[in-house]
Here is the input.
Amino acid sequence: MNENEYGQSIREEIARNESALRRYTELLASYGGRIRLTGPSDATVLWEEHILDCAWSLPSLPDSGAVIDVGSGGGLPGIVWAICRPNIAVTLLDSVHKKCSAMERMSAELGLTNVTVACARAEDFAVTHRESFALAGARALAEAGVVVELLSPLVRRGGSVLAFKGPRYAEEIAAIATWKGLGLHPPTIISYHMGEKERHILVWQKNAPCPKVFPRRAGSAEKDPWWR
Here is the structure.
């Protein structure tokens, strides 16, 4: 689909789920003065810059199965996924206990029965949940090479890794000659605009098991890039 077709699909998704998405936006805004779940705390800004942005990933989700949002923070994009895709099981993963508690409370207030909150680092969680998800996604987590190292160990063969990126994504992926070292195909790029802002979603299909050397110890992905 081109951007206009994607846009129409997203608008339809939002219309079907607008009541619950608006309620989630209000809950996020209510935490703004207490816990830094995301940058802004204004409901209008949260809706326009975060909820609508997360919705662009919905066509990339599987029809069923388990997915995980890594570094979820306030539940973006995972709670948006759970609201709009009740047939998938969504794990919200974050290492900050206050954020995990807030996500648990928001999920309960929204009546979401398809959400599990896990409080752990991605590297540690992947040891006990290795290659058990149909999709792993992250938004505003790290550069592309780091994101895929953290997410690929969580995804089963035939699944996918998803990352939200800004216009500098091309520089990040240009440095990586091949993705085979993590069992991945090169990414498919979905480009769109949020107002004047250029945005991109990168989706890697996983065609082979992730080597057992991954996940590495916490912090290794940033300090010692796997592709160099």
User: Anything to note?
Assistant: The mean pLDDT is 92. Strands lie at 65-70, 88-94, 115-119, 133-139, 155-165, 188-194, 197-205. The domain at 3-155 is CATH 3.40.50.150 (Rossmann fold). The chain is about 35% helix and 25% strand.
